[in-house]
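ok new one. same drill as before - structure tokens go in, u give me an amino acid for every spot. 110 of them this time. try not to just spam alanines like last time pls lmao
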């Protein structure tokens, strides 16, 4: 019962007595009642009572609209270019002695 109340709109649960009363007035069995009222129901003489049945017109509590982005592919020809770079090596003579006593020192070898 706790699960039903947690996952179902309480207003729909409160309409159960109307459902039972309308079922008792119906001339036919339970399955015929369910098919007639819940399977693409057409307007008839008791249309107003039918609209008060639970889960006929449940209110929209939460509506989520999500749209996926449009995916397009664009291919370009890759342009190749070469970069020449000298290897740089560091020597201790290039730095002052104040860096030697600190924790963060420049790299000595690359």
């Amino acid at each position: 019962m706790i699960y039903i109340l947690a996952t179902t709109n309480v207003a729909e649960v409160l309409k159960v007595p109307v459902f039972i009363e309308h079922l008792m007035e119906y001339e036919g069995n339970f399955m015929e009642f369910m098919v007639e009222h819940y399977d693409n129901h057409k307007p008839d003489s008791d249309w107003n009572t039918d609209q008060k049945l639970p889960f006929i017109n449940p209110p929209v509590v939460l509506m989520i609209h999500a749209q996926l982005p449009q995916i397009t592919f664009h291919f370009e020809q890759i342009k190749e270019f070469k970069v020449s770079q000298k290897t740089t090596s560091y020597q201790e003579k290039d730095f002052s002695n104040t860096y030697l006593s600190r924790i963060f020192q420049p790299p000595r070898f690359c």
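Helices lie at 2-7, 10-13, 16-25, 30-38, 47-50. and btw The chain has a mean pLDDT of 77.
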